[in-house]
Design a protein that fits this description.
CATH architecture: 4-Layer Sandwich
CATH class: Alpha Beta
Number of helices: 6
Number of strands: 15
CATH superfamily: Metallo-dependent phosphatases
Radius of gyration: 19 Å
Distance between the termini: 45 Å
């Protein structure tokens, strides 16, 4: 057992700053990708041509959010992001799941089979212009307090916000406002995935997946000014290409509570992207950058067009693969939205 006293964050710890709120009014039209079990792919003749033809249809003002999957930055080839960098640059806000320590200090967590760190990994986050990362996963603690403190300091210096870890200087949740659009970010991890003794202790640590707490946290974020509520979830079975029934049930509960976008991680595989009510649920985005490894369909990017006052216009899913050390796009799907009452 852990030598530390375990506790949970109170709802007050997860609250965001109040602001006026209009009801979220977007609904997403179901498409063949709407099954949480299906991955599949759709080839397009020219990805750049598709993007160019769509620009004239984009309303203004709005915000383009890009979400990527796992980022483990040790030994990543230097040019890995060269081909996909325009996708990040065209976005207004970029987020991902950071699964390594940005440090050369600290000792590996005891008895942990895999530990990841790279003090130079920040350069990849900066190249992708990442604005926010989730630390609610099973690797942010790999090099214990020293490694985590170095990560916080490096991210803070680079202006990259964090969610999913609470300490005296960092909140477990973040609310951002850009161009009149407010987004509340929350992040949680399954308790079984968080290597002991790095659960909550005295209000410090990773928020754990606990249905009632999460539902209340989402409701609170929505009621206090989160026009859009985005939830990172580190969960499920590693290596699986399908979401578990329990994951689907939980995701639906969070959407019912007010979440508009759910970003899953941990499996290191692509899982389905589901439309449920007005929300988009990505059960696992897989890997964006995960060391030097190369694999087919290693991950997915989500491009989500957010409108003011909680409207979601459309979402695109972009397939990723690593070929000869270069991350490339392999397919694109688009989910349409209609601005009808939720």
């Amino acid at each position: 057992m852990s030598p530390y006293t375990l506790s949970r964050l109170t709802l007050a710890d997860l609250k965001v700053q109040p602001a006026s709120l209009d009801q979220l009014t977007a609904t997403v039209r179901a498409t063949p990708i709407a099954s949480p079990y299906a991955v599949g792919s759709l080839s397009v003749p020219s990805f750049s041509m598709l993007r160019t033809s769509e620009r004239s249809e984009e309303p203004s003002p709005s915000l383009l959010l890009v979400a990527c999957g796992d980022l483990m930055l040790s030994s990543v080839p230097s040019g890995a992001l060269d081909e996909v960098q325009p996708l990040f640059q065209e976005a207004d806000y970029r987020v991902g799941n950071l699964e390594c320590a940005l440090s050369q200090r600290g000792t590996p967590a005891p008895q942990k089979p895999y530990t990841f760190r790279d003090s130079n990994g920040l350069s990849f986050l900066q190249k992708a212009e990442i604005d926010l990362v989730s630390l609610a996963n099973n690797h942010s603690w790999d090099y214990q307090w020293e490694g985590l403190q170095d990560s916080f300091q490096a991210l803070d210096r680079a202006g990259i916000q964090t969610v999913g870890f609470a300490d005296p200087s960092h909140s477990p949740s973040v609310t951002v406002e850009k161009g009149g659009i407010r987004i509340a970010f929350l992040a949680f991890a399954e308790e079984d995935l968080v290597w002991w003794p790095f659960w909550f202790r005295e209000g410090v640590g990773i928020p754990l997946i606990e249905t009632s707490l999460m539902v209340e946290a989402v409701k609170s974020a929505k009621a206090e000014g989160g026009y859009h509520v985005v939830v990172f979830l580190h969960w499920g079975e590693e290596g699986s290409t399908q979401a578990l029934p329990s994951q689907i049930e939980l995701a639906h509960q969070l959407v019912d509570a007010g979440a508009g976008l759910i970003l899953g991680s941990h499996s290191h595989t692509c899982q389905g992207v589901e439309t449920y009510r007005s929300a988009v649920i990505a059960y696992s985005l897989g890997d964006c950058l995960f060391g030097p490894s190369a694999s087919d369909d290693c991950g997915q990017l989500l491009e989500v067009r957010l409108e003011p006052k909680g409207r979601l216009e459309w979402c695109k899913i972009v397939g990723l693969t690593m070929r000869e050390g270069i991350l490339t796009t392999t397919w694109v799907r688009r989910l349409e939205a209609r601005n009808n009452p939720r």
